[in-house]
TrEMBL record:
Gene3D superfamilies xrefs: MetI-like
Source organism (scientific name): Kitasatospora paranensis
Keywords of this entry: Amino-acid transport, Cell membrane, Membrane, Transmembrane, Transmembrane helix, Transport
Pfam entry (one): BPD_transp_1
Name of this chain's protein: Amino acid ABC transporter permease
SUPFAM superfamilies, per database record: MetI-like
């Protein structure tokens, strides 16, 4: 067996096998990994090249409409729908989750039926039902059950298209939010509640100080996914002729005949806003992870800074220092 002398490195005894300190450290080679990465990079480059050079995408039309007043107004309506439906949906979901976690079989059954019904019916069907609520009920009121009505409203004028859309989206979202919240609460070890009860901590304080902080780590990732899904599901309300983003894009390309570039306008806005929601999700999850991890996961900026520092250190380190294994002093710990 022969060894290769490395500049700046000592060579072991000529008559015996080399020691661990004399062997050069060679980085592991991953040729197939590099080949797969190169193939993927070529495919991505071809796709980007097609986006830039294919005249069918019609980028001049895209630039002409991407920031027009009508599109920006439609983006605002889309965000309003998402915000209102998210707030109402998670309020409804929290209430339904509390019913499902209660010890009353009647309340548990009612909550289960609600979740079963709203998860079984497609969202677009629910929206059309709410849009035609005035056909089923001309007036809605509050009063004695099966008796006289004390206060009532006319549903034709009180509930417009936007209100019907918010109610439909919120009720649909509430069914999914209830299961997300219930799963997060159940993920907390029951022994902690027993210990808190043994210490005499009130139930409300147990929920606020013990259950909720731990349950949030399980609730937030799924809740963020639901919000992003709801944001994209607002495009379904085009059936109610509400001027949200997708409906407005349809109006414009119906007038101009430029289908593909207008669809790209909607796509660009959906991608941009979904990215912003994902960034917010990352930082919220990082905030609630502080209770379980001493070192929270690094932010993208911290990852980039660490990569630059690692590359800088590698370039400044002599090759002999990078390829020689660290040696431990005799009798000491490495």
């Amino acid at each position: 067996m022969s060894t290769t002398a490395v500049p700046g490195q000592s060579v072991g005894a000529e008559t015996g096998p080399p020691g661990d300190a004399d062997l050069p450290v060679v980085p592991a080679r991953h040729p197939w990994r590099w080949a797969a990465g190169a193939a993927a990079f070529v495919l991505v480059a071809q796709f980007v090249h097609g986006l830039a050079t294919n005249p069918g995408w019609d980028w001049p039309t895209f630039r002409a409409f991407v920031a027009t007043d009508s599109i920006l107004k439609a983006v605002g309506i889309t965000l309003q729908l998402t915000l209102y439906a998210t707030v109402l949906g998670f309020l409804i979901g929290a209430a339904v989750a509390a019913l499902r976690l209660s010890r009353s079989p009647i309340l548990q059954t009612i909550a289960w039926v609600y979740i079963w019904a709203f998860r079984s019916i497609p969202l677009i069907v629910q929206l059309v039902f709410w849009f035609n609520l005035s056909y089923l009920y001309r007036r809605l009121g509050i009063g004695v059950p099966f008796g006289p009505v004390l206060v009532d409203i006319d549903t034709v004028h009180a509930l417009g298209a936007l209100g019907a859309a918010v109610i439909g989206l919120a009720l649909h979202q509430g069914a999914y939010a209830a299961e997300i919240i219930r799963a997060g609460v159940l993920s907390v070890d029951g022994g902690q509640l027993e210990a808190a009860a043994a210490l005499g901590i009130p139930r409300l304080r147990q929920a606020r100080r013990i259950v909720l902080p731990q349950a949030m780590r399980g609730i937030l990732p799924n809740a963020a996914n639901e919000i992003i899904s709801l944001f994209k599901s607002t495009s379904v309300v085009y059936v109610m002729a509400i001027g949200e983003l997708f409906y407005q894009v349809q109006v414009v390309y119906g007038r101009t005949g430029r289908v593909v570039p207008l669809l790209m306008v909607a796509t660009a806005w959906y991608v941009l806003l979904t990215t912003l929601l994902s960034v917010g999700q990352f930082y919220v999850e990082r905030h609630f992870a502080r209770g379980a991890e001493r070192t929270p996961p690094p932010t993208p900026l911290q990852r980039l800074r660490a990569l630059v520092e690692r590359i800088t250190e590698t370039r400044l380190t002599p090759p002999s220092a990078r390829t020689t294994a660290p040696t431990a002093p005799s009798g000491g710990r490495p």
